[in-house]
Structure prediction request, 309 residues.
Amino acid sequence: MKNLLVILGPTASGKTRLGVELASLAGAEILSVDSRQVYRGLDIGSGKDLDEYVVDGKNIPYHLIDIVDLDIEFSVFDFQKRFFETFESLQQRGTPAIAVGGSGFYLEAVLKAYRMVDVPPDEDLRSELQSLSLEELGQRLEKLREVHNTTDLEDRERLIRAIEIAEYTARHEPEPAPEIDALVLGVRWDRIVLRRRIRDRLTARLRGGLVEEVEHLHSSGVSWEKLSFLGLEYRFVSEYLKGEIRNSNDLKQKLGAAICGFAKKQETWFRRMQRRGVVIHWIDEGDVSEAHRVVEASGGFSGIGSRST
Prediction:
């Protein structure tokens, strides 16, 4: 019997809804796998949609959402560590765990148990790296490891930290990871339908206060530069608020197109995960009954297809 159920899919695919429905059936708790939902204050733009964590009036417990402030640099190492700690805690309590998310790198860090260690600041190395150009820093990082997150190459401080981590991990062993035997379900839609869902959701979020959320974050001290690295919604709305995007119609069109492009990149990443050995069982349109059948056929998961005979 599997000890972790994973629900992945591109943005706006309905993976949270499916995960919550299955969690209700299994008596499980949700572990969010999202690089932005960890931050407090990123609510509408990151798509937390916390009202979705309710089934028939019952709240489904969730984890790894709203766990750090925006002034904290929260890396994939930090996420992996918190995920493993939460997963082990649920295991000790005998509570099933369902991971839900679309951040491919974070998902792989968990499923593949990437070797990661807690890296302290290295002031001597940082001083040495300060004299290098952005291009030279990028070349140095690429010599040390494969670059999964291209935003590491666009920001000087992130680049320096990434190099610091890569050089330290080459010399230190990570802590052992918990034993995870995961069943992975993927939610997929026809491309045209998914684009419509993305645009409909964007319309709802703009009406629900997305622009006001970004405006509040900036007035609270979050820089435009920081906002631009917090995802497409925050980047494009920041440009709109600065007058770089002329009007709300242009914002909606440009941001909608960018999110559709992002969804395509997510799908590409999931195919890459499959090539690297992750078995993904695809569920058309996130159908709960079909997901239930796949879980049963795969040997069961806690309260789903695993009742004793």
